[in-house]
Amino acid sequence: MSKNLLSISDLSKKEILDLIEFAKNFKQDDGSFRKEDLFPDKTIANVFCEPSTRTKSSFEIAAKNLGCSVVGFDISNSSIEKGESIFETVDALSLMGVDLCVLRHPESVIRDLAEYLPEIVFINGGEGSISHPTQALIDLMTIIEQKGTIDDLNIVIVGDLDHSRVTSSFVEGISNFSFNSLTFCGHPSMATKYANPVLGRYEPDLDAALHDADVVMTLRIQYERFEETLDLDLDEYKQAYQLTSEKLEQAKGDAIIMHPGPVNYVEISESVYQSEQSVIRNQIANGVAIRMAVLSRFLSS
Ligand code: CP
C-alpha cells in the first residue's frame, strides 16, 4: 500500500476490498462504532480549506474512536488568513508532532505537499473538482453492502458531473469492477467532460438513463465551482433532471438511491430522499467506518 492516499488509483482492487471489509468490522449492530485505543501516540490534523460537514466530522470521530489526538484546524482563524502558504502551514503542524494530515483544498496541492513533506502522511479529503478518494470508498462499500456485489449492476450518475470530484473518484474506483453498465446523465452544460466518456456512456434524457438501473447516484449543482454565473431556469432543470418518484419508476424496483451530500432538493425530491430505496444516510454512517479503516491502515504503514 502506498504511504499516502492521494487518489483512489493509489489502491489496487484487493486493497479497496480489504479496506471495505476492514471498515465493516468497526460497525456495530446498534449503529454505533467500535472504539479502540489503537493509536494513542498518533496525532492527526484536519486541514480543511473548503467547507465540509461529513468528511471533516467523520475523520475527527474516526480518529478519536481509534484513540488518536485530533487538531481541529480552523482555516478562518489560522495564519493562512495572514498570508501563510499551505506548505508552511502543514510544515508547522508537522514540526508540532502531527503524524497525518487530512487535506481538503480547492486546488491540486496535495501531491506537491506530499513530496515537500515526506515525514507526514497525507489523506485526500477532497481536491477541487478532481478527486475525493474516501468518498469513493464509502460509495463502493454502500453498494456492496446493499447489493452484495458490484458485478452486473446498472449504475446511473445524474447531476452536475463536470464539477464532481465524487464522480471522478467513483469512476476510477469502479473501473476495477465488472459492472454491467455505467450511464452519465446531466444538463449538457454540466456534462462536457462526460459527453464521450472513456468508461460508460452519456445519456442526456433522465428517463432513458434510468431504465433498468440498480444504483442511482444523484449530485447537487456545485454553484461554488462555476466560473461564471450559472444561467439556468431551475424549474426547467428540475423538470428534466430532478430524481422524483415518477422518474424512479424507470429503474428497477429494488434500485438504491445514493447522494454524497449535501442535498439541495433540486437534484432529488424530498420523497425520494426519504424513501426506503434511499441509502443516503447509510453513506454518511459508512463515512465513519471507512475513515476508521483508512486511518488505521495509513497510520500503520
Ligand atoms: N460528501 C462530502 O464530501 O460532504 P462534505 O462536503 O459535507 O464533507
Supply the key terms.
binds phosphoric acid mono(formamide)ester; 2 domains; 4-stranded parallel beta sheet; globular; 301 residues; 11 helices; alpha/beta; single chain; 5-stranded parallel beta sheet; Rossmann fold
Which assembly state applies to the chains in this document?
A: single chain
CATH superfamily of the largest domain: Aspartate/ornithine carbamoyltransferase
Biggest sheet: strand arrangement: 7-6-5-8-9
Q: How much of the sequence is in beta strands?
A: 5-15%
User: Which CATH C-level class of the largest domain is it?
Assistant: Alpha Beta
Kindly report how far apart the N and C termini lie.
8 Å
**Nearest-integer average pLDDT:** 96
- How many E-type strands? 9
Number of helical segments with 4 or more residues: 11
Could you give a short account of the major beta sheet?
5 strands, parallel
Which percent range fits the helix content? 25-40%
Rg, rounded, reads 19 Å
| CATH architecture descriptor text of the largest domain | 3-Layer(aba) Sandwich
Q: From the 3D structure, determine the CATH topology of the largest domain.
A: Rossmann fold
The unreliable regions are none
Count of the separate structural domains? 2
Structural class: alpha/beta
Order of helices and strands: HEHEHEHEHEHEEHEHHEHH
Bound molecules: phosphoric acid mono(formamide)ester
